[in-house]
UniProtKB/TrEMBL annotation:
GO terms for biological process: defense response to virus; maintenance of CRISPR repeat elements. It comes from the Eukaryota. The gene is cas1. InterPro entries: Cas1, CRISPR-assoc_Cas1, CRISPR-assoc_Cas1_C, CRISPR-assoc_Cas1_NMENI, CRISPR_associated_Cas2, Virulence_VapD/CRISPR_Cas2. This is Cas1 protein. It comes from Symbiodinium pilosum (Dinoflagellate).
Length: 424
C-alpha cells in the first residue's frame, strides 16, 4: 500500500495499448506476456498508474491484487479508448478510521469554503493559460475575485465560457479565428485529447485520496449516487488547465488523432514540475498530489484552513523525471555449500528488486528518482551476504550512458532506462 515514504517518490506510469498482453506477477514483478513470452516487466512498487487500452488484454487475479497492494491504480479503457473503470486499492492508512470520521463530520460551511478555494485556483490557472495580451486574462482574474463560499452564483461556469473562447486564441491570430473552440465532452478531436488527459489526472488523484485514508465517494461539491469518485472530481479542478496547456501545445505541433504518441505526451502531465506557495516544496505533480490530499485531511480535522494547491514551477517543463541507476558489483566466495547458498540468495534478492544482469557479477537497476535509488541502496545494505565483497554505486542516467566498453562485449544487453511513461 502507498505509504508516506512512497508519497515522496515519483511512480512510473505504464500504458498497454500497442499489443495484447497478459498481466501476471512473479517475485513482485509485473510481467507482460505475449504468446507465453515475457515482453516487458516492472517492479509493482514502482508503478503508480497502469492504463490498459487493448480489448484482448488479460489479467491474473494475482496481478491485480499485487498492484493494489503496491498502491497502484489500474485504469481499464473501453472501445472508445477512454477509461471505463478504475481499480483502486482499499486504504490501509494508519489513521483511516479517524480521517474518515472527520470527513463524514465535515460541516457544510467547511465544504463550501474548500470548494471556493478549488474554484478560485482553477480560474486563476485558466487565466495563466490564455495569452496575456488578450483581455480575457484580466477578465478571468477579475472573475476569480468574485467567487464566494460555495460559488452560489456559478462563477466557475461563467469563467469557463470566457476561457474556452480564448483557449486557442492569441493576440496575433484572434482576428483570423472565425470559430472559437467549443468544449464538448462527447465530441472528438481536441475534446477527446482533453478527456483522456483528465482521466489520467482523475486516476492519479483517486489513488492519492485513498492513500491518504479518505473516502473518494464523499465529495465537497460533486454529488451523485452512481459516482464513486466525487472527491476526485472536486480536487481535479485546479489541475485541469495543466492538461489544457499540454493539449494546446500538441495541437500546435500537429497532433491530430489520439494514438500512441499522443497518449504518451498526455501521460506526461503527471511529471509536470510543481511547487507550493513559493516554498521549497517542489516536485512532479504525481508526488505533490499527496500533499494536496494530506492538506484536505488536515482541513477536515480542523488542523488546517487552506488546501495546499501546488502551482507549475515557472519556466520549467519536463516530459520525464531525472533517472538514476544503481549498480551492484560483487565478488562472493563459492567454495562451500553455505557460500554458494548465500551467493544464490543475494542474486535472487537483487533480481526480486528489479536488478538486471549486465555482466557476470554486475547488476543494475534504473530508478525513477534519487529518493528511489536511496531506497534500493538501503535494501542492498540490509541483505548483505556474510562474506565476500559488495560494492554499490548510484549514478545518473547520463553517467550511465557515458560508460564505455573498452574490450569484449556485455554478456547481456541491459534494457534502456524506463521513462515515467512506458507503452507496450
Amino acid at each position: 500500500m502507498c505509504s508516506p515514504a512512497d508519497a515522496a517518490v515519483i511512480k512510473r506510469t505504464l500504458e498497454i495499448s500497442r499489443y495484447a498482453a497478459h498481466l501476471a506477477v512473479r517475485n513482485q514483478q509485473l510481467l507482460l506476456k505475449r504468446d507465453g513470452q515475457v515482453v516487458g516487466h516492472a517492479p509493482c512498487e514502482d508503478l503508480g498508474v497502469v492504463m490498459v487500452d487493448h480489448p484482448q488484454a488479460t489479467y491474473s487475479h494475482h496481478a491485480l491484487v499485487s498492484l493494489a497492494e503496491a498502491g497502484a491504480a489500474v485504469v481499464l479503457c473501453g472501445r472508445d479508448h477512454l477509461p471505463a473503470a478504475l481499480v483502486l486499492p482499499l486504504a490501509q492508512h494508519s489513521q483511516l478510521v479517524s480521517r474518515m470520521a472527520d470527513q463524514i463530520a465535515a460541516s457544510r460551511p467547511l465544504k463550501k469554503r474548500l470548494w471556493k478555494q478549488l474554484v478560485v485556483a482553477k480560474i486563476q490557472a485558466q487565466a495563466r493559460n490564455v495569452d496575456p495580451r488578450l483581455p480575457a486574462q484580466k477578465k478571468l482574474l477579475a472573475l476569480a475575485d468574485e467567487v464566494r463560499s460555495g460559488d452560489p452564483t456559478n462563477v466557475e461556469a461563467h469563467a469557463a465560457k470566457v476561457y474556452w473562447r480564448n483557449w486557442l486564441a492569441t493576440a496575433d491570430t484572434l482576428e483570423a479565428d472565425t470559430e472559437p473552440f467549443r468544449r464538448d465532452a462527447n465530441a472528438g478531436g481536441l475534446n477527446a485529447f482533453l478527456n483522456y488527459g483528465y482521466a489520467i489526472l482523475r486516476a492519479a488523484i483517486g489513488r492519492t485520496i485513498v492513500a491518504a485514508g479518505l473516502q473518494p465517494g464523499l465529495g465537497l461539491h460533486h454529488v451523485g449516487r452512481g459516482n464513486a469518485f466525487c472527491l476526485a472530481d472536486d480536487l481535479i479542478e485546479p489541475f485541469r488547465p495543466l492538461v489544457d496547456e499540454r493539449v494546446r501545445e500538441m495541437h500546435r505541433q500537429g497532433y491530430v488523432t489520439l494514438e500512441q504518441p499522443a497518449k504518451a505526451e498526455l501521460l506526461g502531465v503527471l511529471t509536470t514540475p510543481m511547487q507550493i506557495g513559493g516554498k521549497p516544496q517542489t516536485g512532479p505533480l504525481m508526488v505533490m498530489l499527496h500533499r494536496v490530499a494530506a492538506s484536505l485531511a488536515g482541513c477536515y480535522a480542523g488542523e488546517e484552513r487552506r488546501l495546499a494547491i501546488p502551482l507549475p514551477e515557472p519556466n520549467m517543463r519536463i516530459t520525464g523525471y531525472r533517472l538514476m541507476w544503481v549498480l551492484a558489483m560483487f565478488d562472493l566466495p563459492t567454495d562451500t555449500r553455505d557460500a554458494r547458498r548465500n551467493y544464490t540468495l543475494f542474486r535472487k534478492q537483487l533480481i526480486s528488486n528489479g536488478f538486471q544482469q549486465m555482466q557476470y557479477s554486475v547488476y543494475a537497476r534504473p530508478c525513477p528518482s534519487r529518493e528511489n535509488a536511496e531506497v534500493h541502496l538501503a535494501r542492498i545494505e540490509a541483505h548483505l551476504p556474510p562474506a565476500g565483497e559488495v560494492r554499490v554505486l548510484a549514478i545518473t542516467d547520463k553517467q550511465f550512458e557515458r560508460m564505455q566498453i573498452f574490450w569484449g562485449r556485455k554478456r547481456r544487453a541491459i534494457e534502456q532506462p524506463p521513462h515515467q511513461l512506458e507503452l507496450f
